[in-house]
């Protein structure tokens, strides 16, 4: 065992040197810029540039696609493969409008065999030349009735391809904008239509001041006027009050997630009472039929006709309600439906994600998206590998696409050939969602040394627990963790020592008996990093029954034996003492306190019962033998100086210069005495027996 470790000790620096020489860290491209889909409106004839930036190892190079085809490099279009910059000079819609995607690729050189390429897409940037192609329609003649609702539609042909569109109304020419809305009697809705809550005769247009809507954009500094509308108003004498009545709403409006929704209700009506608001007011109710309190997500316009809801989410979809009111009456609730739409949305964990997989394992990419509530589900995903659409040419032994197309598996990945990126496209009625995920393959954890799986040992042997492993050079730390006896140990298991180069062992000759017994069992070493985990098992069996080793004998000597010996010794001492006492009594004659008292005509038991412990009766001192010691008179209530030769008699002990007398049956006689100070104190250990 020692020889193996020495050998590996010598080999290790060589191995290390070998590793560092071919350190091969690979990382597929990851696009940082552009970071989200966008639409850009570019002024015709201007110069335009788009940036692309990606990271990876080695540094990626760039290409651009327009409508899923490589962009055509011309004298007006250039792409810098190193910086990723796309430049277009003299932008022209017909040549340049389209959906652009940057493709970042990096190439991994293999010492033997062809290089391997990984490619990744950026989000789509849609480019459009800002333009207004609007044709004014034919002029119209319109007639309305005084005090009645009237509407002039903003109708035009063509389209405004601009970032910002605004619609305003003009009378006659561009210089005469309709700015006076007569205290909200006149209203322009979100589609640009002009509403009169009720007409006044003054609304009639002069032949040179026809009503025209103007479609404007600050981006292109342009206002295009639509057809002219000539309005005649039929006069009405003695107008009667009119209840509000719904004339317009935008129920069913489709609003994309994260944008702002505007719901509109317009009520016609006329109230001649000058003390009342002359146009109906609008009341808004939420999906729960409760009046909407403006604030936060909800705002109500000053004229009360618009409810705006910011940062639209799927749960905002539903029916909202408006109600028109004036002094004459009010309407029923009118339903305005908000329809929240979105391009496909990823299910949780549904998007293909960057993944790092050790060699030999499978890599899985998901592409699971949905439409918003009540919308048509998306079509099946379309997969791309390194920005090339999959199809019959795709190697089925390497790539597995599930039947529902929602999962792509790269089988048994290899670092040399399988670092790649996949893309998937999901389309629904509202748009397209692209997902992009890259696969990085690293060298797996390679166990370069592991100890014998089963080690049968005897006391004094060394248990080998050395585990050595290598992995991909991109992994900075490998963690070793031991599991033993249902416990986890971060570096080494109990009693193990780690020396140079992970040489790990338990020297059992350093253990006592209990420790030695505890080292038997299954050891598991888990070697892990973020992407992989491997385990090495070592079973340790003690061949010798753990015996009482002389060095450690005292610790293992059973306590009960000691207790037994002590007990027996104690009993022997007691018996000896009893025998001694009896012998002595026999020598001295039959001296007994009780008998003496009884002899003196007293009945100590009776006295005790009558007087208890508080009251001491004192036998006649004459009845006591004082030997040859002189008798000392004491005041009556002082204790009798009862001093006899028998201070060592059983049942008597002195403590704090006091001795108590007991009958042989243990009952207290009731005599206290102070020791005769003239007598030498008894030897200290005698008094405590
Ligand atoms: C290991 O420990 C866990 C919790 O500490 C316990 O539930 C389990 O029963 C233990 N297993 C053994 C084999 O002791
Ligand atoms: C184990 O410990 C003993 C006692 O200290 C020592 O003599 C011996 O060299 C050790 N064995 C190893 C392999 O370290």
UniProtKB/TrEMBL annotation:
It is found in: Membrane. Residues 28-122, 123-223, 241-337, 348-428 form the Ig-like domain. The gene is LOC101845381. InterPro entries: Cell_adhesion_signaling (IPR051275), Ig-like_dom (IPR007110), Ig-like_dom_sf (IPR036179), Ig-like_fold (IPR013783), Ig_I-set (IPR013098), Ig_sub (IPR003599), Ig_sub2 (IPR003598), Neurofascin/L1/NrCAM_C (IPR026966). Residues 679-689 have a biased composition (Pro residues). The lineage of its organism: Eukaryota, Metazoa, Spiralia, Lophotrochozoa, Mollusca. It holds the Pfam family Ig_3. It is a single-pass type I membrane protein. This is Neuroglian. Residues 611-635 have a biased composition (Basic and acidic residues). Residues 611-689 are annotated as: Disordered. It comes from Aplysia californica. Its main location: membrane. Residues 1-21 form the signal peptide. It comes from the Eukaryota. Coiled coil: none annotated. PANTHER family: NEPHRIN, V-SET AND IMMUNOGLOBULIN DOMAIN-CONTAINING PROTEIN 10-LIKE 2. Keywords: Cell adhesion, Disulfide bond, Glycoprotein, Immunoglobulin domain, Membrane, Signal, Transmembrane, Transmembrane helix. The chain crosses the membrane at residues 557-582.
């Amino acid at each position: 065992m020692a020889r193996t470790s020495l050998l590996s000790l010598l080999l290790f620096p060589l191995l290390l040197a070998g590793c560092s020489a071919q350190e091969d860290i690979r990382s597929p491209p990851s696009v940082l810029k552009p970071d989200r889909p966008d639409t850009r409106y570019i002024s015709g004839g201007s110069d335009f540039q788009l940036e692309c930036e990606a990271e990876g190892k080695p540094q990626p190079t760039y290409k651009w696609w327009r409508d899923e085809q490589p962009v055509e490099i011309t004298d007006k279009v250039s792409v810098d493969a190193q910086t990723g910059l796309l430049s277009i000079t003299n932008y022209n819609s017909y040549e340049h409008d389209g959906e652009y995607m940057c493709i970042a690729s990096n190439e991994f050189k293999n010492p033997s065999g062809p290089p391997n390429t990984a490619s990744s897409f950026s989000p789509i940037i849609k480019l459009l030349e800002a333009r207004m192609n609007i044709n004014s329609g034919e002029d119209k003649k319109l007639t309305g009735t005084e005090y009645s609702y009237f509407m002039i539609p903003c109708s035009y042909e063509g389209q405004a391809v601009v970032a910002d569109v605004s619609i305003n109304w003009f009378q006659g020419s561009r210089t005469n904008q309709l700015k006076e809305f007569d205290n909200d009697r006149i209203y322009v809705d979100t589609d640009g239509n002009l509403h009169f809550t009720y007409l006044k005769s003054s609304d009639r247009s002069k032949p040179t001041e026809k009503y025209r809507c103007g479609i404007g954009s600050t981006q292109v500094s342009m206002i295009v006027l639509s057809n002219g509308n000539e309005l005649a108003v039929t006069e009405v004498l003695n107008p009667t009050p009119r209840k509000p009545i719904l004339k317009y709403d935008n129920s069913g409006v489709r609003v994309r997630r994260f944008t702002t929704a505007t719901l509109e209700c317009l009520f016609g009506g006329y109230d001649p009472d000058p003390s009342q608001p002359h146009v109906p007011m609008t009341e808004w109710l939420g999906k729960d039929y409760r009046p909407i309190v403006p604030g936060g997500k909800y705002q109500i316009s000053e004229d009360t006709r618009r409810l705006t809801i910011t940062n639209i989410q799927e749960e905002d979809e539903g029916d909202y309600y408006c109600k028109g009111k004036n002094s004459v009456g009010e309407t029923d609730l009118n339903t305005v439906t908000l329809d929240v739409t979105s391009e496909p949305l990823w299910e949780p964990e549904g998007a293909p994600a960057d993944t790092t997989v050790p060699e030999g394992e499978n890599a899985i990419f998901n592409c699971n998206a949905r439409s918003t509530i009540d919308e048509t589900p998306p079509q099946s995903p379309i997969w791309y590998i390194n920005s090339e659409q999959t199809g019959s040419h795709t190697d089925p032994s390497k790539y597995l696409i599930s039947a529902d197309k929602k999962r792509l598996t790269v089988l048994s990945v290899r670092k040399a050939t399988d670092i790649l990126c996949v893309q998937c496209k999901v389309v629904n009625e509202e748009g397209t969602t692209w997902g992009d995920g890259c696969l990085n393959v690293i060298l797996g954890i390679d166990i370069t040394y592991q100890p014998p799986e089963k080690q049968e040992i005897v006391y004094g042997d060394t248990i080998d627990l050395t585990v050595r492993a290598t992995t991909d050079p991109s992994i900075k730390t490998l963690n070793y963790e031991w599991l033993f006896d249902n416990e986890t140990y971060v570096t080494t298991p109990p009693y193990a020592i780690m020396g140079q180069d992970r040489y790990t062992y338990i020297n059992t000759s350093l253990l006592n008996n209990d420790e030695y017994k505890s080292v038997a069992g299954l050891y598991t070493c888990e070697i892990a990093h973020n992407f992989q985990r491997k385990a090495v098992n070592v079973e340790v069996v003690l061949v010798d029954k753990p015996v009482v080793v002389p060095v450690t004998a005292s610790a293992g000597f059973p306590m009960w034996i000691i207790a037994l010996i002590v007990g027996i010794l104690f009993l022997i001492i007691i018996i000896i003492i009893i025998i001694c006492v009896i012998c002595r009594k026999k020598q001295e004659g039959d001296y007994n306190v009780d008998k003496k008292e009884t002899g003196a005509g007293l009945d100590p038991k009776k006295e005790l019962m009558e007087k208890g412990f508080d009251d001491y009766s004192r036998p006649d001192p004459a009845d006591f033998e004082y030997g040859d010691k002189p008798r000392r008179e004491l005041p009556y209530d002082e204790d009798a100086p009862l001093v006899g030769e028998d201070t060592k008699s059983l049942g008597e002990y002195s403590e704090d210069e006091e001795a108590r007398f007991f009958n042989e049956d243990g009952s207290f006689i009731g005599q206290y005495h102070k020791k005769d100070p003239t007598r030498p104190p008894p030897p200290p250990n005698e008094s405590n027996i």
